[in-house]
Every structure is written in C-alpha cells, then in structure tokens.
TrEMBL record:
<keyword id="KW-0813">Transport</keyword>
<dbReference type="InterPro" id="IPR051269">
    <property type="entry name" value="Fe-S_cluster_ET"/>
</dbReference>
<dbReference type="InterPro" id="IPR001080">
    <property type="entry name" value="3Fe4S_ferredoxin"/>
</dbReference>
<dbReference type="Pfam" id="PF13370">
    <property type="entry name" value="Fer4_13"/>
</dbReference>
<keyword id="KW-0411">Iron-sulfur</keyword>
<keyword id="KW-0249">Electron transport</keyword>
<dbReference type="InterPro" id="IPR017896">
    <property type="entry name" value="4Fe4S_Fe-S-bd"/>
</dbReference>
<keyword id="KW-0479">Metal-binding</keyword>
<keyword id="KW-0408">Iron</keyword>
<feature type="domain" description="4Fe-4S ferredoxin-type">
    <location>
        <begin position="15"/>
        <end position="43"/>
    </location>
</feature>
<protein>
    <recommendedName>
        <fullName>Ferredoxin</fullName>
    </recommendedName>
</protein>
<comment type="function">
    <text>Ferredoxins are iron-sulfur proteins that transfer electrons in a wide variety of metabolic reactions.</text>
</comment>
<keyword id="KW-0003">3Fe-4S</keyword>
C-alpha cells in the first residue's frame, strides 16, 4: 500500500536516487562504492531506496558509473553525476 501521508520538511531535502536500468551495464561499481544504496539484480543495478540522506558515496557512485545510468537529485536539482 502506498504511503499517502504528507511529506515533512526533511523529505524536501532528501536526495532521490534513480538508475536507468536500460542504460546500466551491470559493472557493479555502484554496489562496490555504496553497497548500502545499490545492488545488482538481473545483471543491472537498482537502488535499494529511492530516497536517501545526503551521502558522498552516492555521488561517487553516480560519478563513477561508466554508463552514466545513475542520477542523484535534491528537489528538482540534479546533483549527481557531477560535471
């Protein structure tokens, strides 16, 4: 069942992590850099949670992804991968 409760102020600053599974090469770099955030499933990465607190390991995973398949956002701003 979906959570229909109103978000909190902390939710507004939570980071969102997405993986484009059609672009993912399954290298496993993200799971190695941030095992608490990613795992390989069916030879492709997937985030364990969509929302996460700020964590440098998430940005490192997005920066290191050879397919640029990981996106980290804060609100509407894309913060990873970094340029």
């Amino acid at each position: 069942m979906a959570d229909t409760t109103a978000g909190t102020a902390a939710d507004a600053t939570a980071w969102r992590v997405t993986v484009d599974r059609s672009a993912c090469l399954g290298s496993g770099i993200c799971a190695a850099l941030a095992p608490e955030a990613f795992r390989l499933e069916d030879e492709r990465s997937r985030p364990l949670r969509e929302a996460a607190g700020p964590d440098e390991a998430l940005l490192d995973a997005a920066d290191s992804c050879p397919a640029a398949a990981i996106t980290v956002t804060e609100g509407t701003e894309v913060i990873g991968p970094r340029p």
